[in-house]
Give the backbone structure.
Amino acid sequence: MPSRPFRITSLAASALFLTGATLACAANAQTPVTLTEAMADPDWIGPPVEQAWWAWDGQRVQYQLKREGAAIRDTYQQGIAGGTAVKLDGAARADLDAPRAVYDASRQRAAFVRNGDVFVRDLRTGALTQVTRSNADEATPQWSRDGNLVFRQGNDWYQWRAGQGVGQAAVVKAEKDPAAAPKPDDLRERQLAMIATLKKDKETRDAAREQNDAWRRADPTRAPAPTYLGTDVAVVDSALSPDGKWLLVVTTAKGADEGQAGKMPKYVTESGYEEFEDVRTRVGRNDPLPHKLWLVDVNASKATELKFDSLPGIQDDPLAAMRKAAKQDPLKGDRAVRIESDGDGSGPAIHWSDDSRNVALLVRAVDNKDRWIASIDLANAKLVTRDRLTDKAWINWGFNDFGWTGDGALWFLSERSGYSHLYVNENGKSRQLTSGQWEVSTPTLSADGTTFFFTCNRKWPGDYEVCAVPRSGGDVREVTSLDGVEDFSLSPDGSKVLVRHSASYMPPQISVVNAAGGNATQLTDTRKPEFKNREWIAPQYVQVPSKHGAGVVWGKFYGPKNFDPDRKYPIVMFVHGAGYLQNVSERYPNYFREQMFHNLLVQQGYVVLDLDYRASEGYGRDWRTAIYRQMGHPELEDYLDGLDWLVANKQGDKDHAGIYGGSYGGFMTFMALFRSPGTFKAGAALRPVADWSQYNHEYSSNILNTPELDPQAYQVSSPINYADKLQDNLLIAHGMIDDNVFFKDSVMLSQRLIELRKDKWEIAPYPLERHSFTRSDSWYDEYRRIYELFERTLK
């Protein structure tokens, strides 16, 4: 290999560079970055704008920044016309607005939750009313069309109306109804028939109770009586209509077996003794508990179970053939379902219209092959299917937003075309408002109800803007031209858009733009001069041709400004985590430390390629599901194609290539070294999955079904089954109290490598780190090891 302008020839010299020596690199003009800087607490970069929202008058915005050296988030206020931001502290915090405000029908009042309490702001005068003041957490306020405000505290519901204060709106209890008739009993019935006085006393009590209930319901000053669902259910969610008349309740069977949880040992503890932490169950042990749905007439305290049998396809078993092959019993009756939008139960899945006439909910099959959006015929207590989305692989975790327009139409997102797009359902028919090979996310209806605003990536998959389309249909227009939009919110009057956006070396900042479009006014730049003024290596966005039928694979390439035409460059390939995540975009990367590390690698003579391999976010349904039942296979093909592209186009040295990544990236590092031995001379697998049967249900079962049902998928997708092929250099690094990917994965693989008598591998455990490291010394130690691995094996 041709000589280089500068080369570290020993680990001692390497350590000198890594700890902070400023070494000029003739091939690059930018200020060299040290590993100490790259892995330092990100306070030195400057705090990102983590949350931003409008003040009530639409002339100011408020936002949060992390305080340097602390976990506290301070709130600042900035006028949209410019000026200096002011930190709001002390008594000034009492007048703060908050994110996700909801507006009444006249757009004259806003309700929001701050510090777990509900507030109402008069948008005409600015007057602020604190509705609740408790140590409990209130949530999900919603206005009725006539000015009633409902909100929840757990599964207890309250309402507020100006001048009337707060009152209990609905209570549902998983208890036996004290007024319920006792179970049939022959002895009891004969006793009542025999003793007339007992029978008369019972009739008197029953009549008195009925009269008391009627009297109570007729008194408008009384809180509604509790509704009792019995002792065999547990309440997990609920949603009250804005007028307070109807309550939807989601339950599971009480005491149902949720599966055996894990026990994670903790060795470095304050007590000095070993301690154990309860952690999640493994995939398939057991399935998430199925839900039941109840419609409660609040005034009558009457609950009616809503059946799911009308949902199209609910009786079909998409896994029937697989179940038969696994010699399992066939499915009996309807498939189990859950009322949830994002697959883990944390997302909202029930939405009422503000006139309380309509309610929609998202029903997800536990096998995650179907998603239904249904409304409810309140008069007849029946579900009415509005949309069915079915997928032979799995329904996406995202793109499940839905809601109501002011004129009673249902809007929703769906991947039915292969990409997430916006639909409106009215009069029983759905109409598609957007289309194309790009994705719609986070739709918001304008203040006047005429326009949907949303995030889009129309130009190319990594370019995110705020877009808009008429509610009645028409052309899509881009409101912003910021390239890296993170999220946005409309001003109270709907005339302006507050946009949180970022770039490769700019953590999220905020700008304001007119809703009609035009130039954006940037309000913040929180970067510190040392970071902002440094000349970083701009990633080159590239399209790698696929030799495996995938079209092109988007990537970020990091290389020298001026290539030496007489040399080849050692290669490092980076694999992002999460599987379904996008790292090739014009946003600030999830892996900002790794991006600085890539700068360091280029300074030391490497070229680096970061790919959005198949399964990544941003590229549509087919790209997402390409890994169904074969995790690690299409992705490896994409990296092998990327390797060939580097050799053909960027003077990459194929004989000196390495690969690394964390979480899913660690899994893929295993797959690269085990399934394509000799291709990569070294790999660093960080917090890696070695055996998918050890991972969680919500993620793994979507892609691989369950180990008992689909053992072949787990066999071909788990790296531990290919460990015998290892011949190259491997570093495993893992936090020992990782409650996402258990440290057990790395321990099991270590034992397997020991049994196979493999050499050239090592493991670095981090006793006080979880899945995402929080300590700069751990980050430094981990990446020092990665750097030294590449230095000694790739040059």
Summary: The first strand starts at residue 51 and ends at 54.
